[in-house]
Structure formats: structure tokens, C-alpha cells
Design a protein that fits this description.
In chain A, the strands form two sheets. Chain A has a seven-stranded mixed β-sheet with strand order 6-10-9-8-7-12-13. Chain A folds into two domains: 125 residues, Rossmann fold, CATH 3.40.50; 141 residues, LD-carboxypeptidase A C-terminal domain-like (Glucose Oxidase, domain 1, 3-Layer(bba) Sandwich), CATH 3.50.30. In chain A, α8 runs parallel beside α9. Chain A has 307 residues and is of the alpha/beta class. Chain A starts with 11 loop residues before the first strand and ends in an 8-residue tail after the last strand. At the A-B interface, α7 and α8 of A face α7 and α8 of B.
């Protein structure tokens, strides 16, 4: 794996919208957070475009991504929000070239699709809050963890994040995964999740309970969890609270345990990343150690390497 | 492909619940419809079990299916409802043995998963209303079409069903497909949709617009539509009416056209099957001809063959 260069004070962050539309009033506070940290912020030409659930046409969203990775003045590429749209860009992007630029790339949720594609091409990328996330009040350590990651320091030290043990034991591997429905949407494609020898992150939001079951079952039946070394489940945010339980419900923690505990690898759940109120930042593609007895995840490599 | 034996007057239909729970009051009218058509109806031992979104344990639901296919007194296996649960049964069923029994098998929605598995093993199965569907008032030709299919007659003659042309032309092939989210859940598994040389049915219900886009994009990226001869889209029922458009919406017909028209094979949409109020019954695995100029589908083989 190749690590991006750490961001120095004054580094230049380019904001892009590869998925759903963001409005300036939804992103303003996030922009200020990055600026207050000492970074310069610029915007893709089409960052505030909107067409239904897409932040502009596929051509526009792909162009902003390509320009951000190619512009030598840009040090990091930061997504404004998720939603949906990254999958539509995969065959319009020169992903090899993007990965070779070795820039910091940040996002989560729908951006899972781009993380999988860039990680597969050897680039370590960052599972972090986005501008929309940062524009809602969060505990201070959410920003501390993000800024640590951007600067190449350990993003977990600041947070002291832990999850609850489901299957005990310790495991090591490269970190992969992200938002469950995007992991499932990758199955059978050239940029599919491949969890062999890895530690897998899994979380989602707003899914009915039976869909969480269906998606975890899909991962298993498709064999993409074969050889997985450890599993770090976040939260299935707003799953138990969904009113749409016409066909009945199990609590999501029961579903996760029912589907994943039989894999019998070290596993925690409730680890704070993704759609929760207070997520840590995590480098995808870096080597981590999961201690499922303690519920903790430890980074064994710095998230950035100057070079 | 092997066709099931047609149902004679007095034939014995076994009702099973392989997916979500059904209550007797939700199925009563459907049972009466089958009885009034001259069939005997019996029930799986666990047909009214309930555990969250599942109609009993995986063991119970699998046992009812296995017994229905093995019992020499049973002529047809009819699902009470969909919801979710069939995928959990795949590795608990002797699907080869079930297919070899050459019985009429009826259902849709979540039952798409079992159709794909049985069709792959050479059995023609029926995409039909279920007991819950039949327990709501429907136009008379919905029942006429179902009963025609069960008796081995053409289920489309009674209905005169048509869709709207999206891409013109004519195509022939075996009929496959069903509910979109289950087609996607099959990708990368041993029982995946394989549309090569086939005519594919696609419909769904209660999906947010962006998920319809994501799922169609998934089918394309995974290559499971490679070599498809024609596409028959039903409705994306309650998709445009969903209140959950936080990230914006396109009308589902625009999404279908945007994603599938570039495949440039004969295609209609709005063909009445699946979750619409008045669905026709269709034999999966039988040879059909799609006339996408006229918007019509023609069955080239009887749905059952006595033998």
C-alpha cells in the first residue's frame, strides 16, 4: 500500500461532491473547521450543482474529482457529503491515475465505493467525517481525530474509541470496508470488497432491519468475507427506530450477531465510526490490530508518510 | 428446462411461508380463491409462525418447503407472502431434489431468490400473486391469469397485458428475473441472476429513487445483464410516492431509462406484474417473445407439461 503525504500547515484542501447535492449553508461550518485548522479550502467547479439525488451530471462530478487529483496545487480531496452517486462515476474515472497521485482522500457513506476502488489500486484513503458531518455540532475529539489523520498522526489516540466484544480474540490485517449497502453494491464488480486477511469495517444508516439481514447474508453467500481476520461493526444508525417495520423487526445488534458471529473471527460492535453522532477517522488500507476482548482497534502504521 | 405438471381439478396445493410472517386473517381470502377454483389447500406445519421479520426459524421454514416438495400427495407449492427470509434458507435446502420434483411453485417478491435457485436447476417456476396478494380485491383477470398458469394454459391471453415501449424491437429468450433488490442480492452468489440470452423481468416496491439507480447500476457493473436479449420492467411501486427523498429524487421511469436504455435491447416498462395492484402470472424459465414496439410479451411454450 502507498500512503498519502501528510498535510502540512497551510496545505490546500479541495472540496468535491461526487454523490448527492450539498448546499453552502449545509457545509459552511465544516469549511470553517478546516480553515481554522490552518488549511486552505477551494471548491470543485460543480461542488454545489444539483440534479435530483445527484450533485450535477456524472460528467461534472467526475471532472471535479479528476481535476482535484491532478491539480499539483491540491494536497487533499475532501467530499462534501455522501448520499448516492459515486458508483455512477467508476467507469468515467482514471482510478489508477488518481491512486498514483498519493493524495489524502476523505469521506464515508456513499464514498465507500471510491475508497474500495482506490484502496484496490494501492492508495491508503481516509474514512472520515465530511463537510455535512462537520457542520453539525460534534464532540471536540471528532475534529481532533480527523485532524490527526490528515497530519499523519494516530487518529485513535485522541478519541479513545471502543466497541463491545461479540467474539473475543485478537487479529491483524489491512483495514477495509465502510457502509454496508455500498459494500454489497460492490459485490461481483471489478472493485468488489475483498476481506481476505483483512479487518473489515461495517456500518450503515436508515436501513430496515430485514435489509441489514439481507445485506449481511449477501456478503456471506457471495464469499467476500471468506478469510476475513476480524470485523469492526459500527452502528446501524436509525435502524431500530425506523417506523417501517411492516414485516416485523429484530434489533440490529441481534441481526449482526446472528449473521456474523458464526464466522468465528474476533468481532466488536458499536465502534464509533460512520453515521454515528461522534465518529473517529480511520485510514483504510493501513495495518491495524483489533483486540476484540478489549473492544479496541490499534493503528500499527501512521496514516500518512512524507515522501 | 423441465416444466411442472399442470394442476388437474382437485389438485392439492400446499401453502408455505419461506419469508416473513403471515396471519390467517391476511391469507383467508386467498385460500378461498384457490378452493373455489377446485383445489384442495393444506398448510405447512409452521406456516403461521412468527419471529420478527421471519415466519419462524430457518429450520422451520426450510422444513416446510422440503416437506411440500417431497410429499407425493402435494401437487403445487404456494407461498403465503414475501417480505424477507428466502436467502437465509438457500444453504439449508436440497434445491436439486426440489427442482427434480417438477412441482408447480408459486410466488414473487422475496421468493425471487427461490425462483432463481430452482430455475438454475432446470425447473420452470411461476411468478404469481401470493395468498396476501389474493386476499385484497383485484380485477378478475388477476385470478384468471393465475389459474391459467396453474392449469398449464397461457396466463397472458386472459390479461391482455402490455407495457410502454422504451427501446423498440423484438427479442426471444427464456424468461428470468423478478424483484430488483433480490436480483441484486443474488449477485456473486452461486444462484446469481444470469441474463445472458434471456428476457429479464425487473420490478420492486418501496425503494427510494436513488436505491433504484444504485441497484440497476449494480446489475450493470457486475455484468449480470451482459448478453441480455430483452428487458420487461414492471413498476417501481410506491417509489415516487416515498416521503424519504432527503437527498433528492428523479421519477423512477427516468431512472430506468437512464440506466437501462443504453443497453440498447428491446425494452418495455410498466408491464403489469409483481407488486402492482393487478399483476399477471408468468412462467420463469419458459421461452417468451417480447415485442417492445407493441409493448407485449408472448409465451411460446405452455407453462406446464403433463408427464
Amino acid at each position: 500500500m502507498r500512503f498519502p503525504n501528510p498535510l502540512e500547515p497551510g496545505a490546500h484542501i479541495r472540496v468535491v461532491s461526487p454523490a448527492s447535492p450539498a448546499r453552502p449553508d449545509q457545509t459552511q461550518k465544516g469549511v470553517e473547521t478546516l480553515q481554522q485548522a490552518g488549511y486552505g479550502v477551494s471548491f470543485g467547479r460543480f461542488v454545489y450543482e444539483s440534479d435530483g439525488y445527484l450533485a450535477g451530471t456524472d460528467e461534472q462530478r467526475a471532472a471535479d474529482l479528476a481535476e482535484a487529483f491532478e491539480d499539483p496545487e491540491v494536497d487533499a480531496v475532501f467530499c462534501s457529503r455522501g448520499g448516492y452517486g459515486c458508483a455512477r462515476l467508476l467507469n468515467r474515472l482514471d482510478l489508477d491515475r488518481m491512486a498514483a497521485a498519493e493524495k489524502v482522500f476523505c469521506g464515508f457513506s456513499d464514498v465507500t465505493t471510491l475508497h474500495l476502488a482506490l484502496n484496490r489500486r494501492g492508495l491508503v484513503t481516509f474514512h472520515t467525517p465530511m463537510l455535512l458531518t462537520l457542520s453539525v455540532d460534534r464532540p471536540g475529539w471528532v475534529v481532533d481525530s480527523l485532524l490527526a489523520c490528515l497530519a499523519g498522526r494516530d487518529p485513535l489516540t485522541a478519541a479513545g474509541a471502543t466497541g463491545q466484544s461479540v467474539v473475543g480474540g485478537r487479529a491483524r490485517g489491512l483495514l477495509t470496508g465502510g457502509c454496508l449497502c455500498l459494500l454489497c453494491d460492490s459485490i461481483g464488480t471489478p472493485d468488489a470488497l475483498d476481506a481476505r486477511d483483512k479487518i473489515v469495517l461495517i456500518e450503515d444508516v436508515d436501513e430496515p432491519p430485514h435489509r441489514v439481514d439481507a445485506m449481511l447474508t449477501h456478503l456471506i453467500h457471495a464469499g467476500v468475507l471468506d478469510g476475513v481476520q476480524g470485523i469492526v461493526v459500527g452502528e446501524m444508525t436509525r435502524t431500530d427506530e425506523s417506523p417501517d417495520h411492516a414485516i416485523g423487526a429484530w434489533p440490529w445488534r441481534r441481526i449482526v450477531e446472528d449473521r456474523l458471529a458464526p464466522l468465528n473471527v474476533p468481532m466488536v460492535m458499536g465502534f464509533p465510526f460512520g453515521h454515528v453522532h461522534a465518529p473517529v477517522s480511520l485510514p483504510l488500507g493501513a495495518t491495524v490490530e483489533l483486540d476484540a476482548d478489549a473492544g479496541s482497534l490499534r493503528l500499527l502504521e501512521a496514516p500518512c508518510v512524507a515522501g
